[in-house]
Write a structure and sequence with these properties.
With about 170 residues, the chain is mainly α. The chain contains five helices and no strands. This is NADH dehydrogenase [ubiquinone] 1 beta subcomplex subunit 10.
């Protein structure tokens, strides 16, 4: 390739876009409406949004876990304290859902161990089987036979009857 370039041979062609020439001194109404919209609507909204984003970055709030305070059990509520009854019922429902999830997680771990171990599952997954048996028995002792419409009061009565049967068996 030659060292000296012939710049005249590689001229840039002229553009085909015409140059806008103002033929009037009247301002364009579109520019006026765009700037009016920007100042009236867009600027305040942008200001408020930026202010909210600055405030949120200062005060980080992680809302994906709602933490409830523990409330007294139904056996600790005073007679006729309906608000305490309601809170104890809600607490019992949350505890039941947590216990259901615990049983489900242990069951999934057991299934994963069985899948992983294959024919050796009985000797290699013995700890998981024992843990699942304990968790399932505890769940069944507390919530079994309550049915779909079980509530804190029937669960408390079930536990009371079970304790009375254990006392009779001990005597």
């Amino acid at each position: 390739m030659p060292e000296d370039h012939e710049w005249e041979a590689y001229k840039v062609p002229p553009t085909r876009t015409p140059v806008a020439e103002r033929t009037t001194s009247v301002p364009n109404p579109v520019n006026f409406f765009q700037s009016a919209f920007s100042y009236v609507f867009d600027s305040p909204v942008t200001f408020v949004r930026d202010w909210i984003e600055r405030w949120q970055t200062k005060n980080k709030f992680y809302y994906y876990h709602q933490k409830f305070r523990r409330v007294p059990d139904l056996s600790q509520c005073l007679d006729g304290d309906y608000l305490c009854y309601y809170e104890a019922e809600a607490q019992w429902r949350r505890d039941r859902m947590v216990d259901q999830e615990i049983v489900e997680i242990i069951r999934e771990r057991m299934a994963a161990c069985k899948q992983r171990e294959g024919p050796n599952q009985f000797q290699n997954c013995a700890k998981e089987m024992e843990l699942l048996a304990q968790v399932t028995k505890a769940y069944q002792d507390r919530y079994g036979d309550l049915g779909y419409h079980g509530n804190a009061r029937t669960c408390l009565m079930k536990q009371k009857h079970r304790m009375m049967e254990e006392r009779k068996a001990a005597q």
